[in-house]
UniProtKB/TrEMBL annotation:
Pathway: Protein modification; protein ubiquitination. It comes from Acer yangbiense. Residues 53-359 form the U-box domain. One of its GO terms (biological process) is protein ubiquitination. Residues 1-13 have a biased composition (Basic residues). This is U-box domain-containing protein. SUPFAM superfamilies: ARM repeat. The keyword Methyltransferase does not apply. It is an enzyme of class 2 (transferase). The keyword Transmembrane does not apply. PANTHER family: U-BOX DOMAIN-CONTAINING PROTEIN, WDSAM1 PROTEIN.
Length: 377
């Protein structure tokens, strides 16, 4: 309507051109046509969504999932997602009405049906859930069910890139909220391989970090037998070498998570055995001390402590190599600048072990300058 435009005269001229001066044939015009006459549209603000509207849609989603109405449920979830994307106000209103619980419950229902038939609605729910982390406890309970986790693993193995990303992000939130789910996930066929492949063939930084977080939760399970089983399987896939390659040149967050996973793997005998055989292990780990962040330093010292302390007495190659790449200096500096108690204890013990092996190193490297090693400890 003419009243909805600024600059009425220009609007009248445009209207004449649109309808014709003499009432002749109408010519189609585009928004660019009006802009050429200096006319600007005044955007009409959308009315914010209300709690009543949200509650009604959520009730319909619950009913649709109860009757396994895949098409109806998918359309309703898409409607909720569109509303959430319109504004932060809408998003807050949608979240506060328990939307994540309702959507997670619907996901759990459809995950028990034939996946080939329910893939569309399941995908839409996962995509929508990624809009508001962290999820509440009730939502985690639904998504942490065996059927829900198996469904997400299915997406990781057979979905396209966006499906894989959404699945691993939701899975990370579940496992981070309840570590027992990491144990459940570890026994689902293909789960560990799918997570490994997301690191080996990355989709995006977010999916790489999410995969590392889930694997970290898996390898940090306290039950020794379970921990050994999980770590050994990842070692056989080649995860140790992959982590070391990531550590050579990755941003802070990925480095921290990679070091955390490597620390967990080095808690096991098979993990340490594999780490000993890789020429990058000691140089890369020592390099990360005091280099990335406090967390990265804590993980690095822990890894170095496990490798040096638990190496067979007659070998001690790790200690000698650590001295060669400057671990002694870095650990001394770490004690001077300060660190958490657990890391301080490990650094102190490492310094004592390194000090005992200085003579062996000096005998093997007469031509090198190790004056810094002659300071008493």
């Amino acid at each position: 309507m003419i009243s909805s435009w600024r600059r009425p005269r220009a609007a009248r001229r445009a209207a004449k051109e649109l309808h014709g001066e003499e009432g002749g044939d109408m010519e189609l015009t585009t928004p660019n046509h009006f802009q050429s006459h200096g006319i600007e549209r005044i955007p009409t603000p959308r009315i914010p969504v209300s709690s009543i509207q949200v509650s009604e849609i959520l009730s319909q989603i619950t009913t649709a999932s109860k009757w396994e109405d895949q098409v109806g449920c998918r359309n309703l979830v898409a409607k909720i997602k569109a509303m959430a994307k319109e504004s932060e106000r809408n998003k807050r209103c949608i979240v506060t009405n328990g939307t994540d619980s309702v959507l997670s419950a619907a996901f759990e229902v459809f995950s028990r049906t034939c996946l080939d038939e329910s893939i569309s609605v399941l995908e839409e729910i996962l995509s929508t859930l990624t809009l508001w982390f962290p999820l509440n406890g009730e939502a985690v309970s639904y998504l942490g069910s065996n059927s829900s986790l198996r469904c997400m693993v299915w997406f990781l193995k057979s979905g396209d890139l966006s499906k894989k990303r959404n699945a691993v992000l939701v899975m990370t939130d579940v496992v981070s909220s309840d570590q027992s789910k990491a144990n459940v996930l570890s026994v689902i066929e293909g789960a560990m391989e799918a997570l490994f492949n997301l690191i080996k063939e990355p989709i995006c930084p977010a999916s790489t970090k999410a995969s590392l977080m889930i694997i970290y939760q898996m390898v940090m399970i306290t039950t020794s037998a379970t921990n050994e089983r999980i770590a050994t399987k990842f070692v056989e896939m080649g995860l140790v070498s992959l982590l070391l390659e990531l550590l050579v040149d990755s941003e802070r967050s990925i480095c921290e998570k990679s070091l955390g996973v490597l620390d967990g793997i080095c808690s096991t005998e098979n993990g340490r055995a594999k780490a000993y055989t890789n020429a990058l292990t000691i140089p890369v780990v020592v390099k990360k001390i005091l280099r990335i962040s406090d967390l990265a330093t804590e993980f690095s010292v822990s890894i170095l402590w496990k490798l040096c302390k638990k190496e067979k007495r007659e070998e001690k190659r790790s200690l000698v190599e650590a001295l060669q790449v400057g671990a002694f200096q870095k650990l001394l500096l770490l004690l001077q600048v300060g660190c958490v108690k657990k890391t301080k204890e490990k650094a102190t013990e490492l310094l004592k072990l390194l000090n005992l092996n200085r003579n062996r190193l000096l005998e093997c490297n007469d031509s090198m300058d190790f004056k810094y090693l002659r300071r008493p400890f």
